[in-house]
Amino acid sequence: MIGKLVSHYEIIEKLGEGGMGVVYRARDTKLNRTVALKFLPAVLTRDPEAKERFIREAQAAAALEHPNICNIHEINETEDGQLFIVMACYEGRTLRDMLDNTPLGPPSRGDKGGVASLSVSKAIDIAIQIAQGIARVHEKGIVHRDIKPGNIMFTSRGQVKILDFGLARLGTHTKITKRDKTLGTAAYMSPEQFKNQEIDQRSDIWSLGVVLFEMLTGQLPYEGDYDAALMYAVMNEEPKSVSSMRKDIPQNLERIISRSLEKSPAMRYQNMQEVLDDLKRVIVIVSYPKEQKKSIVVLPFKNMSADAEQEYFCEGITEELINALTQIKDLLVVARTSAFSFKGRDLDIREIGRKLNVDTALEGSVRKSGQRLRITAQLINVEDGYHIWSDKFDRDMEDIFAIQEEISLAIVHNLKINLLKEEKEQIVKRYTDNLEAYHLLLKARYFWAKRTKEGLKKGMQYVHQVLEIDPSYALAHAYLAAIFISLGWLGFTRPNEVFPKAKAAAHKALEIDSSLPQVYAVLALISLFYDWNWPAAEKGFKKALSLNPGYDFAHFGYAVFLGFMGRLEEATPALKKAVDLDPLSLWMNAELGFCLRLARRYDEAQEQLKKTIEMDPNFGLAHYYLGILYTNKGMYREAIPEFEMAIELTGGFSWAFGYLGYTYAMVGQKDEAEKILHALEERSKEEYIRSTTLVLMYYVLGDIDKSFECLEKAMEEHDPLLPLIKVSPEFDIVRLEPRFKAFLKKMKLE
Fold it and tell me: For residue 704, with 0-12 CB atoms within 10 Å meaning exposed, 13-18 middle and 19 or more buried, which class applies?
């Protein structure tokens, strides 16, 4: 074949041969590029129906563009009817070659010698890339059917490429023969494939589980000298334990493998995206290791009272317990947003533990009748669903503080955590003895957590009632400051109107109690968003985190500060820490995508934002951030529907309108851009519209002076988002202006 011309491809050399055909390197004489030609054995294409089906699937795969899928250029036939595939030619080696040539690692438990295996981080990285490619293909209804190391190409640049889509179906009825037990397709086949049952994407999930097992251990989960023996093992025996073979396997990684290798497809992951999400959570832990801590989620206590309005009380108790437990440095506590995402959902506790990456869960219920309370609480091991501790409290309402203390201390005792003196003091600390004030603050927090304009205003009303009853309630002053900041930060009110009030409330709280991490966090936010006192902001966030290392909002605020300062290599890990504490928070996940965008890690940012949208397609902020990302990538046409979706979902988000107008101008639709600009100018007569919303629109429409007038006005208003102009990519065009440097100096950003 060497030197022969097939169609317009000149054969250069043979690259390899296997059961699915012979591969040659060739030169495309028309386009003058190097390609790979795979000639399929005639035995695989004798069935016309199977051949036609394979061609359809290969065509569908060829239409996909994904960095982890081998590009298929063409499917053709030789003059004598032999089918061949033209693919991209990559420099590198297969995962099979990599595993066969990996040096021996440390001995397995009970073994005398070592095992050839990859590092945990390397194996997860490869598995993530495989899962990303397969997930994309599954979206098109294609099942690979033959995921194995021999079909995974590892390029010289470290990128995974998945080969041979659809070929397994062609070879389904190939006769099973004796083979080396570490090679071949059978070792990676799911039980339903052996049973010749209808298969779907869950069979690929099984195969990926086997590949991941092999990368980590150098061995297969099931073995046999003959395929028949292997088949029996797969269908009847339990797989080996990965952790019994390696001591450095994270518990959650073993759970991923175990779930992928469930014999029943119904018990497996149901789609590859679920596998991908879990792998990414583990890689964060491996890449940004934290101290090994016990972990817990406090699930929302159920309201068993006849009065539905007592919902705020149940949520308040839950949040009080979360806040108390975050004081313990040796306990990782899932933040409120993620914990509350399971409210009203009937999920198995083990599933919740898997999603949140925690060891234990606290669940309970509250029944309130008059001034009598019945509170139940159960501490559960999420791995097996067994109760570690449970208790029931029948008390008067005035005992609510004591009940919360008892539950918190019982958790500490049963998790066998050594409690420091100052930690215990924080757990049993009472910020007020006035029950009415306590209840009103629970209501205030309930509405503040909604982050809507109406919710914030209602929350403020309740805080004012609290302070009329108990002016020395430091926590109430702190929450009043937080509400003022939220109104200004989210653009509901002019910053000049609310940030001075926030500062006064925060300082009042500090006078009463100088140990509250919430106070230092809000003061840091004021320094960041309003005073533009960068050293004070950093000092405040660090102080809040020193008082409460598990305070997710302080981690978030510090990450925002680092991003504003352009310290993006520090900002991303800090924000990942916040996401680790609150993994199901839509807001936190969207902000992580935003931060990656600021760092110009566009592909990672896009993946993160799409993941957030998958969590909740109706989360407008994620669509808004994705739209901005598309403009940064020059994908203006793709950005427009994202901004339109954000506007629809947020009820007319002015920022999204601003970016929509800017995007229209960038694609030449200046009439549309000017309509939006005029509409925002009219709205600004009736409501507060951030001046930064208009900067880019004026600039790209050619009114440079007006653009800088908006920047000056934003500085006068102390627009909280103004510091972003130093780092946000879309402002690159504005930063070319000579006067921009002078503007940054005014902002103390130069």
Answer: middle
Q: Using CA of residue 354, residue 359, residue 365, residue 371, what is the dihedral sign?
A: negative
Question: In whole angstroms, what is the distance from residue 226 CA to residue 221 CA?
Answer: 15
Q: Class assignment of domain 5-89?
A: alpha beta
For the stretch 638-656, what's the b/e string if a residue is b when 16 or more beta carbons lie within 10 angstroms of its beta carbon?
ebbebbebbbebbeebbbb
Strands 21-28 and 9-18: antiparallel
Closest CA to 717 of 529, 538, 562: 529
Q: What are residue 393's DSSP bridge partners?
A: 375
| Count of alpha carbons within 13 angstroms of residue 726, beta-carbon side | 21
Tell me the C-alpha to C-alpha distance, in Å, between residue 257 and each of 210, 278, 394, 661.
Answer: 8, 11, 44, 48
Q: Which residues pair with 360 in a beta bridge?
A: 296, 381
User: Which residue reads 């004026």 in tokens?
Assistant: 698
Q: What is the pLDDT of residues 236-292, one digit of tens each?
A: 888 878 888 888 888 889 889 999 999 989 889 999 989 998 888 787 666 555 445
Q: Under 8 Å CB-to-CB from 298, ≥6 apart: which residues?
A: 318, 321, 322, 325, 333, 334, 339, 361, 362
Residues 6+ apart with CB under 8 A from 136: 64, 66, 68, 69
Q: The domain at 584-746 falls in which architecture? A: Alpha Horseshoe (1.25)
Q: What is the CA radius of gyration of the chain?
A: 30
Residue 414 pLDDT level (bands cut at 50, 70, 90):
confident
- Integer Cα distance of 538 and 562 in angstroms: 8
Q: How far is CA 210 from the centre of its chain?
A: 25
Q: Return the H-helix or E-strand segment holding 366.
A: strand 360-369
Between CA 54 and CA 169 the distance in angstroms is: 8
Which residues of the chain form CATH 1.10.510.10? 94-287
Given its phi and psi angles, is residue 364 left (phi above 0), alpha (psi -120 to 50 degrees) or beta?
A: beta
CA–CA dist 723, 733 (Å, integer): 16
**CA dist., res. 297 & res. 317, Å (int):** 14
Q: How far apart are CA 374 and CA 564, in angstroms?
A: 48
Looking at residue 172, what is its pLDDT?
44
Q: What share of the chain is helix, strand, coil (3-state, %, to 5)?
A: 55, 15, 30
Yes or no: say if 267 and 329 are a contact pair by the CB < 8 Å rule. no
Instruction: Return the CATH number of 94-287, one of 3.90.550.10, 1.10.510.10, 1.20.810.10, 3.30.70.100.
Output: 1.10.510.10
Within 13 Å of residue 450, how many CA atoms lie on the same side as its CB?
14
Q: Which of 21-25, 44-48, 55-59, 173-177 is predicted most confidently?
A: 21-25
The partner residues of 366 in beta bridges, in order of sequence, read 303, 375
Of 624, 613, 685, residue with least CA distance to 650: 624
CA 156 to CA 587: how far, in whole Å? 37
643 three-class SS: helix
**DSSP readout, 33-84?**
EEEEEEEPPGGGS-SHHHHHHHHHHHHHHHT---TTBPPEEEEEE-TT--EE
Please list the residue range(s) of the chain that carry CATH number 3.30.200.20. 5-89
Distance, in Å, from the CA atom of 218 to the CA atom of 236, rounded to the nearest integer, reads 22
Q: How confident is the model at residue 123 (pLDDT cuts 50, 70, 90)?
A: very high
Write the DSSP symbol of residue 530.
Answer: I
Nearest Cα to Cα of residue 17 among 34, 1, 39, 43: 39
Q: How many other β-carbons are positioned within 10 Å of the β-carbon of residue 225?
A: 11
| Assigned fold of 292-430 | Rossmann fold (3.40.50)
Give which of 316, 293, 378 is closest to 581, Cα–Cα. Answer: 293
Q: What is the pLDDT of residue 354?
A: 77
Q: Which of 130, 129, 101 is nearest to 116 (CA)?
A: 101
CA distances from 570 to 63, 560, 717 (A): 39, 10, 29
d(CA 649, CA 619): 7
CATH C-level class of 436-583: mainly alpha
Place of tokens 């503040």: 448
